[in-house]
Amino acid sequence: MSAARWEPKGPVGRFVNTLEETGIALLLGLMVLVTFVNVVLRYGFNTSLIWGLELVLILFSWLVIFGVSYGFKVTAHLGVDALTNALPHRGRRICALVAGVICVAYALLMLKGAWDFWAPFGNFAPTTGRWFPDGFKEMKIHHFQGYIPTDQVPLPEFLRSPLEAWLLLEGDPPLEKFPRAIPYIILPLGTLLILFRIGQAVYEIVRGTRESLIVSHEAEEAVEDAARAHDETTDVYKGSHAPAGGR
């Protein structure tokens, strides 16, 4: 299975797929737009959006994490399958399941770390336990970090009231910049989505509707297509420059 051949199933699947692809396209489009505007302002008007670089970095981090989960969904992640391709079908399936279990365990570790990092910024308690959560940490007033802003990104006024109601405690000063809790929230949410997509891929391998977590022979097929296109172009060129007959 490759990214080009993946198709969503059912109305819910098509809706979720459209939502994900639209979100990725919007993130990429906003990155390009902010960067373009900043270049025009810098070279045309000798000024710039002081918060432009930070916003682009935030959008890029969201794009990368969304892209990881999307890659698992459409089987677009690159990998080396030279060894597993030498195995029989049953052996390849077992290797794919083992790799899937390892990926699930790794995603669970990432989810714990992501939640523990983000939780104080969202005024929630991080988990306890070294590897896997076994409870929640007892929070004191100085542990809550919802008041911490980004460096430069401004806070839209229409978001001030709900964000301050959520993130500020009694006695905290008003937010001056966009709070870090919002850009950082992609860490637990994105990791949870990655975990879901890996679990979905493993389930499809168990059912036999999927062979691997990685794309197979994509590079080989691309090289063959390029070579075929080159040969066709060469043949056309030689035909158009062939000497006229009878001379």
Structural account:
InterPro entries: DctQ, TRAP_DctQ. One of its GO terms (biological process) is C4-dicarboxylate transport. It is a multi-pass membrane protein. The complex comprises the extracytoplasmic solute receptor protein and the two transmembrane proteins. It is found in: Cell inner membrane. The chain has about 250 residues and is mostly helical. It has one domain (about 5-235). The chain has seven helices and two strands. It has a two-stranded antiparallel sheet. β1 and β2 (about 135) form a beta hairpin. α1 runs antiparallel to α2, α2 (about 50-75) packs parallel to α6 and α3 (about 90-120) packs antiparallel against α6 (about 185-205). The longest helix is centred in the N-terminal third of the chain and has 36 residues, at about 10-45. The chain starts with 9 loop residues before the first helix and ends in a 7-residue tail after the last helix. The model has no long low-confidence stretch (mean pLDDT about 85).
Keywords, separated by commas or semicolons:
mainly alpha; two-stranded antiparallel ribbon
